[in-house]
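Notebook entry, structure prediction.
Reason for the run: the old model in the group folder had no record of what sequence produced it. Starting over properly, with the input documented here first.
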Amino acid sequence: MILFLDFDGVLHPEGEGHLPNDGADFCFLPRLEALLREFPNVRIVISSSWRERLVFKSLLRPFSDDIRTRIIGATPPRGLGIPHPFAHREGEILAWLQINDAVKEPWVALDDAEWQFDWHKDHLVVCGSFVGFDGEAEAALRAHFERSVP
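New structure, fully documented this time:
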């Protein structure tokens, strides 16, 4: 199973009342990491827009050592010239799957931007932008992980 992971609105709140470095950055990461530890075969690909502003190594810093080793890449940036007929984030994910010969791999996206997905919403766990990775999102993601266990 591959988890495509957004940051803003997922690992910390997004929007009013949240500014970068105000102490809220990655405040929901411990909850996600605890769940990931229950499913050691889940690999992670960063799909956050942060990947367009930071080098890959910087994106890994917030994660615990054991989880960091499971991060296998980041989706290609929008300007890479990889055409795909689907919405932005969805198309970037599908492009990553094609580039990495993983189109038959089970996958799920954890994101707060439902509008960026048109055709694969069954692969999407939506977080509320202002609440992030809460109990409801955790239960939905757990269900996806459990369905993919052989």
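Summary: The chain has five helices and five strands.
The old model has been moved to the deprecated folder.
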